[in-house]
Amino acid sequence: MEMKAPRGTHDIMPEQSGAWQAVEDVIRRRCARFGFEEIRTPIFEQTNVFARGVGDTTDIVQKEMYTFDDKGGRSMTLRPENTAGVVRAFLEHRLYSGPMPVKLYYLSAPMFRYENPQSGRYRQFHQFGVEVFGAPSASCDAEVIALAWGLLKELGVEKLALHINSIGCPTCRMEYQKSLRAYFNDHLDTLCGTCHERLDRNPMRILDCKSPECKAVAENAPKMIDHICDDCKEHFQQLKTYLEVAGIPYSVDPMIVRGLDYYTRTVFEIISEDIGAQGTVCGGGRYDGLMRLMGGPELPGVGFAFGVERLLMVMEALGKLPEVDRTSDVYIASLPNDDARKKAFELCMTCRAEGIRAEIDHAARGLKAQTKYAGKSGAKFMIVIGDDELANESVRIRNMADGTEIESSMADVAKNVLSLIHA
After folding, report:
1. Domain count of the chain?
2. Taking the model in full, what pTM does it have?
């Protein structure tokens, strides 16, 4: 039987992982500047963490979760998103007893959703996201948007569009849902079976349905932005003011509701205009009721998530993937006898201790084959250790680009290689 990665998963090969690491380095630096600290949570949780936190009317909970019973008969789920797990960790470790706000991020965290694989969308995928707890002000919403916006700009994704909306609070949403039910009841024949079920439980989920028929009906549905209460209007106005202060252009998109039940007030998406419909690279919003829903205190929250694969896909399409040098600084070739190989190993370890990327032969190849390999590998410099070098305790360091050489004692090899690298 041919062994392949499961459908909807992918291997990140060495020629790709360098770009991942370079992007992750940029993300870590930006998060540090904004005062965020990293959190790492388990890749599986008790199923009720997601059923309660994400919402049992969402596509994720209804259709996409990888759920299993462990050997103790407990229902567990591979995490389909990370906010609910981060909230669980926040509560379990009582972070609410310390200074507020608490600003957390997670990076290249694997997520799992059983959905139809397509370009930039996998069944196992990775996310970068941030969560802020304990900050009710719209300035915090603007800050997390600014983090995401500036990060994309730093990574070379220039043609961006920020779409924002307010989906209100539980108070104003009750009246809005009555309007939605009345509207969709007039279009029952057009709605899919799943949306029939949503109509009574959470009609706002219909606005996020992927069915073309449901999307067409939803376009003319009442808009939440027209039904929000005065407090939510004020919060949304403040968000727009802070975005203007930050110099971030935006457009109000009343069709954004996001796919998770826990959102309140602010929701947003950042889209790369260079690659059209598949260009949504970031989405997030505010979730002021989630903490209480999961058994914790009444604390507000706001955050976002990037799909790392989607982000890299956008960067690749724009020619902005970082170029990573995977070549060694120096290749140390030697005669295949024990004395020469031991000396090559010793010099290699000395170079590495000084921060030099050094390689030696481990395949017992002859000196000619090693020299040929050094050229093909892209090594910047090469050292050859033969009988004369052993006897004299000196070597010649060859520049592989132009063939020039300098002589060096074995004791000074690392120092001289560093000088050549930085010349």
Report:
1. 2
2. 0.88
